[in-house]
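Sorry, any thoughts here?
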Amino acid sequence: MAKLWFKFQRYFRRKPVRFFTFLVLYLTAGSLVFLHSGFVGQPAISQNQANPAAGAPAEGAELPFLGDLHLGRGFRDTGEVASIARRYGPWFKGKDGSERAKLGDYGGGAWSRALKGRVVREKEEERAKYIGCYLDDTQSRALRGVSFFDYKKMTVFRCQDNCAERGYLYAGLEFGAECYCGHKIQATNVSEAECDMECKGERGSLCGGANRLSVYRLQLAQESARRYGSAVFRGCFRRPDNLSLALPVTAAMPNMSVDKCVDLCTEKEYPLAALAGTACHCGFPTTRFPLHEREDEQLCAQKCSAEEFESCGTPSYFIVYQTQVQDNRCMDRRFLPAKSKQLIALASFPGAGNTWARHLIELATGFYTGSYYFDGSLYNKGFKGERDHWRSGRTICIKTHESGQKEIEAFDAAILLIRNPYKALMAEFNRKYGGHIGFAAHAHWKGKEWPEFVRNYAPWWATHTLDWLKFGKKVLVVHFEDLKQDLFVQLGRMVSLLGVAVREDRLLCVESQKDGNFKRSGLRKLEYDPYTADMQKTISAYIKVVDAALKGRNLTGVPDDYYPR
């Protein structure tokens, strides 16, 4: 079913006239149905209505019969007003105890608008706690970390997400469009009614006011890294052999602090700040100082002279932070100078990290990647090969989610990216209902959409890999989990298959900015496991089939964390 949907999309992209004709017919039919229902009332639903069939595996794939998932499709007639009352709590009821019928009926005045915004925020932004409305002054900011503005699309979550990604404890919104981050609030609390400006990109939510901040305390720090403000903690490392070549800038700092060293290296435009007791060193990650062999942090546990709770390293063991300075050694990208004689696929199941892998490949090789499809949002984010036809020969490899013999045999070689199906399915579900870096709403996870999605897409996860192993020519298998854990080695393998010379300094540059613009933050993770026992049983069987297929070709099987669940 899922594969048919992709082919359906591709067909209409190439035949826009037919697409618009189909759209007009669809809208006409919908209007007739709407008019009809207005006269005859609600249609009855048969008690014996059959559930839709599960998505079928690709033709030729040898998958075991796993039975029906038996995922319920029952509907509860809760009513719109009752649903709203549950969402906004008991105060939604009127003075007579009856539930108000209109969402906007909160009474008049700024206080009511502020109360509405606060309740919505507390319900929807569950991973951040609303603190209150605070005074802000342009001469002395309440939150003194990084800041950014967006006068068209600012939302509460976007501000929280940006501050959480940088390791800050607080996020504040002002003027409906300004976001400020900080580790502590340096201002006084004011009345809630003074934070009365609606967010520019989110109706119904409040984003501060004139010189007033709506402040949130962020409950979750970024899981992938420890941070100090905007600097990312890289670890404790042994002093490099040739210090002046490895870290070319050195400054004595008797009153050493993390802030001072990070600020110095940022000012000098270096991405690494290395603290060595009373000396600060700045530089780039290179083969002389690759940051691959971390030492025990106890070897660096010398307190900073100007900072009681932070370690500043020793002359022999350095504490290293990554600054916000961009390492430009791997940022140049272009189309291939001559048309490529072979088409290389970057193949994956949706949600397996294909966009992230494209980002890594472009940085590592200096050449744009292409796509079997066209995604305008990816093009606008810098994937300039997105607009080229996939057979143009101007890109280093081609993104594809296709499976099936005909589609696979169109390529001369392939990098096959495989990810844990439990993670891949959730990632694709988030993309489908929330965009490339957004999240599906809880209503989608709890409703009929998630069970139907798993029923249709889980078999495809297995048949996608089986088809590429069976029909692909010169297939390099890369596990997403291995790429995350050992990027330097795995990305080097991928670059070699693409026929580009592997440059170690360039790969080290990629390591320092591996996330790109398409990484979801950990701020909105589900608090429960969305997979039922039946789903887990079915997916585990698919994992075993894929594992056996990989080992049957003398390849490494799936990583251990795929199962048991």
